[in-house]
Amino acid sequence: MASLIPWRRESALAEWDPFRELEEMHERMGRLLDRTFGDWLSTEGWLPMVDVEERDDAWVIEADLPGVERKDVTVELQDNQLTIHGERKERERSGQLRRRTRRTGRFEYRLTLPSGVEGDRVQASMTNGVLTVTVPKSSAAQRKRIEVKSS
Fold first, then answer.
1. Is 70 part of a structural domain of the chain?
2. Nearest to 73 by CA among 90, 87, 60, 83
3. Which of 36, 52, 59, 64 has the greatest number of beta carbons closer than 10 A?
């Protein structure tokens, strides 16, 4: 009886590369998701990895943007909606690209902050591929510690 599962015999155990197997499985799953969900899982653009930290006096947003030039990043705050968008440009290559796992192209990250932020005091800086945006809270929205007294 023929096997229904394709079977590949490796001639020697030394040729087996578990990372290659994982990479092939990742590619097959990607193709399956693309065929199944089509436009719902658009591969155009990408999202940076972002940490959002709440401090007593401000919100601090850190976005990983390796390979993105500072001039290619825009940070906007409208009301309490923070938007970070930009582009990681494809670089010129002298050889033939054999494998590609890094994303290029446009990106956009949106975050709705609670009300009570001071938009005129927002600061943004970029160091070593990490964008840091500090959005101060208004004095009314800042956390205050209340001393508990004995009665």
1. yes
2. 87
3. 59
pLDDT value for 2: 55
Same domain membership, residue 118 and residue 76: yes
Report how far apart, in Å, the C-alpha atoms of 1 and of each of 4, 5, 6, 147 are: 9, 12, 13, 79
Range of the domain at 37: 15-41
Quote the CA–CA distance of 135 and 42 in Å, as a whole number: 31
> Quick one: 20 and 77 in the same domain?
no
Q: Where are the beta strands (DSSP E) in the chain?
A: 50-54, 58-64, 73-78, 81-88, 105-112, 123-127, 130-136
Are 23 and 86 contained in the same domain?
A: no
Q: What is the pLDDT of residue 43?
A: 47
Q: Distance between CA 90 and CA 67 in Å, rounded?
A: 10
Q: Could you state, in chain order, the average pLDDT of each consecutive group of 10 residues for the chain (151 residues)?
A: 58 66 82 66 72 93 95 93 93 85 87 89 95 90 77 78
Helices and strands in the chain, H and E counts: 1, 7
**Model-level pTM greater than 0.70?**
no
